[in-house]
Amino acid sequence: MTVKKLESHEIDQALNQLNSSASPSWTIEDDKFTKTFKFKNFKQAFGFMTMCAMQAEQDDHHPEWFNVYNKVVVQLTTHEASGVSQKDVDLAQKMDAFAQCF
Amino acid sequence: MTVKKLESHEIDQALNQLNSSASPSWTIEDDKFTKTFKFKNFKQAFGFMTMCAMQAEQDDHHPEWFNVYNKVVVQLTTHEASGVSQKDVDLAQKMDAFAQCF
């Protein structure tokens, strides 16, 4: 199944939906959904990453992410779509939900 | 206990020792020990990160790292020493050992 790149207005719509509750917000940077998650400490940050990693593996859709201590900078894109797709919206929603566990 | 920043010749010595067996090599970039680890897939890359994370937490010395799929880019520095310290040499050695598990 081909994964479709989201159009500009679909990305705006997705960002509005993602950012309606959570803070800080998802943004688009380098054509990727981007968000910086901050936790209390490394243990929580890596706990969050572990939840995301297991979900990502299950969905076969993986984040690009940078971690230093309590901070996790996430970027989401879909290589086969050459841009952001619904897969990234779905993963972003799950990440927000996981972050709320801490 | 104060953590001492390594002198230039100590860093060279540490890099020689770290790179005597492993490939690819550790280098110094932005005053940080830097290495890119590549694995077969995401599951292995994150398995490696998990081993490192537990060690880092135990030693209370954490990496800066970026992951995308099978690739893990690691940078090691010691904030309280404002540079590379023996803690980074030790963590680098452990990471090399963990990487060999995959």
Automatic annotation (TrEMBL), chains A, B:
Keyword match Lyase: yes
Broad enzyme group: lyase
Gene3D superfamilies the record matches: Transcriptional coactivator/pterin dehydratase
Domain of life: Bacteria
UniProtKB keywords: Lyase
EC code: 4.2.1.96
Catalytic activity: (4aS,6R)-4a-hydroxy-L-erythro-5,6,7,8-tetrahydrobiopterin = (6R)-L-erythro-6,7-dihydrobiopterin + H2O
CDD domains, per database record: PCD_DCoH_subfamily_b (cd00914)
GO molecular function: 4-alpha-hydroxytetrahydrobiopterin dehydratase activity
UniProt key word DNA damage: no
Pfam families: Pterin_4a
NCBIfam families: PRK00823.1-2, PRK00823.1-3
Protein name as annotated: Putative pterin-4-alpha-carbinolamine dehydratase
Naturally occurring in which organism (per UniProt): Marinomonas vulgaris
